[in-house]
Amino acid sequence: xxxxxxxxxxxxxxxxxxxxxxxxxxxxxxxxxxxxxxxxxxxxxxxxxxxxxxxxxxxxxxxxxxxxxxxxxxxxxxxxxxxxxxxxxxxxxxxxxxxxxxxxxxxxxxxxxxxxxxxxxxxxxxxxxxxxxxxxxxxxxxxxxxxxxxxxxxxxxxxxxx
Length: 162
Known about the structure:
Blueprint: H1 7-12, E1 16-19, H2 24-34, H3 36-45, E2 49-52, H4 55-58, E3 63-66, E4 74-76, E5 86-88, H5 97-106, E6 113-116, E7 120-125, E8 128-134, E9 141-146, E10 152-157, E11 160-161
Parallel strand pairs: 1-2, 3-5, 5-6, 8-11
Antiparallel strand pairs: 3-4, 6-9, 7-8, 9-10
């Protein structure tokens, strides 16, 4: 149950909304049930900074890989879609993440997208990714797209060090 009457008004009054990790499928389902997705879109369109980690990163995208359904990663494809890309999180710390993200893009389940090692964040201006940033040397961000012959092509993006 929401703990405030006017979710949209509350979000519009914020400078930044940070969403933590957890079950992205559960998060999106609860947000849909309570109209939070529409309120988040209104906040985003008004210039409120939307950010987060893990599920709190995937949720703003078209979708990504998730362990919300069990230990084997599956696609979640009902993200809020504020940016028209997929999102791969924990790219360097969870063994299944990189190959599964690439497979889901190669087979067309997910659109092309950005992946990040833990400790790397992406900055979008509107729907354009304008920078990757990290606080940890050696970490990376990646653009992953489907090739004409149905493979995944990964291009590393070196993040700026904060």
